[in-house]
Amino acid sequence: MKAVIIAGGFGTRLRPLSCTRPKHLFPIAGKPLLDWTLDRLSKNGVTEIVFAVNYLSEAFVEHCGKSAYGMKIHYSFESKPLGTGGCLKNAEKVIGRSENFLLLNGDIVSNVNYAQLMRQHIRNRGIATITLHQVNDPSRYGVVELTDQNRIKRFMEKPPKEKAPSNLINAGAYALSPKVFDHIPSGRPVSIEREVFPALAKGNGLFAYEFDGLWIDIGEPSDFLKGNRLLLDSELQNGQIHKTAEMGERVRIRNPVAVGAHTKIGDKSTIGPHVTLGDNVTVGKAVHIKDSVIFTGTTISDFSSIENAIIGEKVSIGKRVKIHNNIMVGDHVNVHDGVRLVEGVTICHHMEVTKDTPVTKCFM
Questions:
Q1: Which of 110, 126, 211, 276 could pair covalently with 293 via S-S, beta carbons 3.0-4.6 A apart?
Q2: Which contiguous run of DSSP H or E holds residue 105?
Q3: What crossing angle do the helices spanning 33-43 and 57-64 adopt, rounded to 10°?
């Protein structure tokens, strides 16, 4: 079984951290998001992966090479953004037309059973089977209307909440017949959600696979942090601390947390719950970190407090710093002693933060 992973997006809502790495490679619950997806695909019987890549494509090649998790890796490169349908059409020669295959949005945190999805697709005998998930507000997603036989008779992309035909949304995982290529124009950008799926629904070729497990789209900073919490709760309830990590005296670990290799945590610090610390992170004395993701190589000095924040790579955070409430700090930022960052502030790469910053400091 083959799986195509759409991984060409710019991740604009996660800038500045997505300026230097694809969001699919952000650390989450102890390893890159992409690795969670690849591991699950491998366990569900997938043997080949095709990455549809454009933005920062070299990062995927460097991370995965020609094989990962026992699966062969192929790449389909776009010279310009082609959309979710256009990138699939562009990858047709790599995918081939010999068998059904999976298609995944690469920025989803989920525990979908992909083997079960494919089995249902084969039973449906349709062109496409969409994984559906129920949410309270469907207006951010593609929404469907179903018949009694699991056939989708209407597909609407991001309708106003009051016009949505249901609360069942497109969960970004599909099983497809090679016949889908006949419905995608070549040579131009195509949205599979806005052009292909509505047409398939009208032609009775679109079916549903309902799923009620773990699922979240990590496109927003708050959603990324929620995804970190969900994965830690579901996969690492008892925590995961690398054997090379060093703990000071009276360190309090409130699981679930993930602590990377060669990370050092100082005396009387409290870590967790729901914290991911990357490799080579240094945490000082009496530091409190909660509901946060800290990238590789960052230093957090004594008596500082971090909560509900995403902190980039090789950041230097001074003493008695407070970083709270949906904060994102870019790579190589230097936050001076005593600074307070609160309520939705984003700090761009390489900035010197010398005083309290009540507004976003990012110039992109």
A1: 276
A2: strand 101-105
A3: 50
**Alpha carbon distances (Å) from 76 to 49, 92, 184:** 10, 9, 16
With both helix axes pointing from N to C terminus, report the angle between 221-235 and 33-43 in degrees, rounded to the nearest 10. 50
> Is residue 281's pLDDT more than 60?
yes
Confidence at residue 203, expressed as pLDDT on a 0 to 100 scale: 87
pLDDT in tens, 230-267: 999 999 999 999 999 999 999 999 999 999 999 999 99
Catalytic residues: 158
243/234 Cα distance (integer angstroms):
22
| Domain 236-353, CATH among 2.160.10.10, 3.40.50.1220, 2.60.34.10, 3.40.50.300 | 2.160.10.10
- Is residue 161 very low, low, confident or very high in pLDDT (cuts 50, 70, 90)? confident
- Using pLDDT thresholds of 50, 70 and 90, give the confidence band for residue 181: very high
Cα–Cα distance between 50 and 60 in angstroms, integer? 11
* Residue 194: DSSP 8-state: I
Beta bridge pairs of residue 328: 310, 346
Mean pLDDT calculated for residue range 343-347: 88
How many whole angstroms from its chain centre is CA 57?
16
Q: How many angstroms separate the CA atoms of 24 and 217, rounded?
A: 11
What's the CATH fold of domain 2-223? Spore Coat Polysaccharide Biosynthesis Protein SpsA; Chain A (3.90.550)
CB 239 within 8 A of CB 41: no
Lookup: tokens for 250: 């009276």
pLDDT (tens digit per residue) in 139-160: 778 888 878 778 888 888 888 8
- The SS3 call for residue 183 is helix
> Mean pLDDT over all residues of the chain?
90
Please say whether the beta carbons of 137 and 90 come within 8 A. no
